[in-house]
Amino acid sequence: MTQADKHFIETCKEIIKNGYSSVGTNVRTRWEDGSEANYYSIVGVQNKYDLEKEFPMITIRNNTNTFKKAIDEVLWIWQKKSNKISDLNSHIWDQWAGKDGTIGKAYGYQFSKKYSFKTKDGIKEMDQVDYVLYLLKNDPSSRRIMTNLFNHEELKDMNLEPCAYGTQWLVKEGKLHLILNQRSQDMLAANGWNIMQYAALQHMFAQVSGLKVGTLTHNIGDCHIYDRHIPLVKQLIEAEPKDVTPKLVINNKTDNFYDFKPDDFEIVGYDYNKEIKLGKIPVAI
Q1: What is the SS3 assignment for 21-38?
Q2: What's the gap between Cα 105 and its chain centre?
Q3: d(Cα 239, Cα 260) in Å, to the nearest integer?
Q4: Which of 163, 180, 206, 220 is an active site residue?
Q5: Residue 223 is among the residues annotated as catalytic for this protein
Q6: For 85-142, what is each residue's pLDDT tens digit?
């Protein structure tokens, strides 16, 4: 069982056993047929992954074809700093695109904005991503290496307010640690996806900063399972995990974050339960 399996199973069991029901609360989310997408949720979840030990991948379902798509999305946001769905190789954001082909002033759009930052070298103009990279190399003891995508002034211009909205990066004894803050998480559709992509991002930032990877701490505000997902989640938490230790291999020794491509990454030592076939998962929007 991987760390990802353990956290996924324990969190899902807690939601199913003790979760709050959204029925009667006038939820925003809808299924494709227009009916309310209700859910069960728990509040304030924290899961921690030791990336030195293994790359966090769930083995009770197949992630061999999804981890590069997850990395592609995180590069779309953090590297391309784009809000255009045409810049993304998957179609996961198509349903949120407006007539202009963007998701509004969300995610990558926010990272493309430059600010005046106070540094040890004086005031510097840069965006949030470059500020993190600058501090990791020039002021790694700082406790202010943070990003925030939840720009209240422009929430009205976002087709979806950011779910994973904030990060804090901390360097301790040559290891890069990451805290990821997420306001809301769909456990079945997004949990494994988010931890893979941010663990990969942490590996990238560590490599270009000359650091080793440390822990990834994932804080989730509202952690939920949609009603139509409950039978699928029960299949997963009753499945037999694999006794494996996945490792991320980066086949690009660059020290420039903007040189990474999805094809630079591969996973070794991974296997999954081949008896589990979930089929097409309904997505609430």
Answers
A1: ECCCCCCCCECCCCCECC
A2: 19
A3: 35
A4: 163
A5: no
A6: 999 999 999 999 999 999 999 999 999 999 999 998 899 999 999 999 999 999 999 9
To which residue do tokens 């270009």 refer? 208
At 133, which amino acid appears?
A: L
DSSP helix/strand/coil, 220: strand
Length of the chain: 285
* Rounded-to-integer distance, Cα 194 and Cα 178, Å: 13
pTM over 0.90, yes/no: yes
Cα(169)–Cα(147) distance, rounded to whole angstroms?
Answer: 9
C-alpha span between 197 and 210 (Å, rounded) = 20
Here the tokens at position 30 are 């809808």
Tokens of 69: 């798509």
Indicate the SS3 state at residue 208: helix
Provide the terminal-to-terminal Cα distance of the chain, rounded to the nearest Å: 32
